[in-house]
Structure formats: C-alpha cells, structure tokens
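Run log, item B.
One chain of 112 residues. Sequence copied directly from the ordering sheet:
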Amino acid sequence: MKGSREPVQRVVRFHPSSERELAEAVDFLNDEAPGLGFRLSGEVKETISKILRFPETYAIIEESVRGASLDVFRYTIFYEFDKESDQIFVVAIAHQSRHPNYWKERLRDIPE
C-alpha cells in the first residue's frame, strides 16, 4: 500500500531496580486488595505501550528523562528515549508521593 510504513519495533530495557520496585508494588497492592496489584501491572504495561508508540509525547523531567504518569494509579514511569538506537530505557516506576527524586541516582546507569 502506497505511503504505509511498517510499525517501528522499539526495544524497551529496564533498570534492574525499576523491575524490582514494580514487583514490590504489585505484591504490596495484592496484599492490600486481591487483584489490585495486577491492575497496576496492567496499567504499567498499557502506559509502556503508549510510550513505545509515541516516545516523545511525554515531557522531559530531568536531563533527557521523560515522565509518563499512569491514569489510575499514582505512579510515574521515568524513561529515556534514544532516537539513534530507537531504544527506551525505563529508569524508574515511581510512586508519586514517595521520595520524589530517589531515581535520579540511576541516571548514571543509562546506557550510552
């Protein structure tokens, strides 16, 4: 079909601590109310899907790191989009009211 393009196959990589903090949040919320943590996980996946489609939509928060807030849960996904490699690196999946700047120390771990 003229003018159509193949969808971009972006790669998402996660800082190890971001994966751990999501797993801990899911476990905590499931302990509070069965299934609630799985809803959080689903919303994170949905937001990452949006990031994959439109990585430059979200505002730059710090240096080259952007922040995508979830719609229902009070979490923000902090990530860097490298245009050259077409990769997304998730720095943190952070609760919005807990230690707001803790993830900034991870900026040195962003791959070159």
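Observations after the first pass:
- The chain has a mean pLDDT of 88.
- The chain is about 30% helix and 25% strand.
Flagged for discussion on Thursday.
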